[in-house]
Amino acid sequence: MEQIKVFTRAAALLAAMAAGGFWSAGAEAAGGYDPMARPVNPMAPGTSSKPDVQLNPELGNLPDTAGAEETFYLCTACHSAAIIRQQRLSDARWDYLWNWMVEKQGMPEQDPETRETVLSYLKRHFSSQR
Ligand code: HEC
Q1: pTM for the model
Q2: Ligand 1 pocket, 82 CB below 6 A?
Q3: Which end of the chain has fewer CB atoms < 10 Å from its terminal CB, N or C?
Q4: Residue to probe by mutation, ligand 1, list 69, 76, 79, most atoms within 8 Å of CB
Q5: What is the rounded CA–CA span in Å between residue 26 and residue 39?
Q6: Is there an atom of ligand 1 within 6 Å of 77 CB?
Q7: CA diameter of the chain
């Protein structure tokens, strides 16, 4: 049962990535199934915890939902998006990290609306809680 679940997740992720232009050669060649495709580990760091969401290669492969653009332009001023993608943090930890970035790393504080947009984006996709 667990195996079937994992497989379904992997398949969904693969479909999402193919649709997003990843491994487009394989997807074009076989019209879906590619026997040479590398197996995908949905639990690997750097993949979204929501396999039904496409990753946007123009936004550092962040999941392409509302807030992705704001997060990308704010957070990659100093470091790569990979440092974000590999996180699985609690909501409280994201709040803490935001303040830490502002107070210790010199990130400019944002207006409340932007702060809410980016933080809820981070909590949605890079959470240890959901
Ligand atoms: C002004 C520069 C700056 C901005 C803007 C910035 N960061 Fe950082 N961030 C840093 C630096 C510098 C480090 C590494 C600090 C260290 O490891 O000593 C870091 C580290 C991190 C880490 C790793 C923390 C850890 O536990 O090692 C995460 C996650 C992170 N940033 C997320 C974000 C997110 C999300 C945003 C956007 C909301 C953001 N950062 C914006 C400077 C910045």
Answers
A1: 0.72
A2: no
A3: N
A4: 79
A5: 13
A6: yes
A7: 51
- 60 contacts: CB under 8 Å, gap ≥ 6: 72, 76, 80, 81, 82, 84, 85
Nearest CA to ligand 1 atom 29: 84
Q: Rg of the Cα trace of the chain?
A: 16
How distant, in Å, are the alpha carbons of 8, 9, 43 from that of 1? 11, 13, 17
**Rounded to an integer, what distance in angstroms lies between the CA atom of residue 94 and that of residue 16?**
26
Which atom, in ligand 1's list, is nearest to the CA of 87? 29
Distance CA 116, CA 75 (A): 14
For ligand 1, is residue 75 a contact (CB within 6 Å)? yes
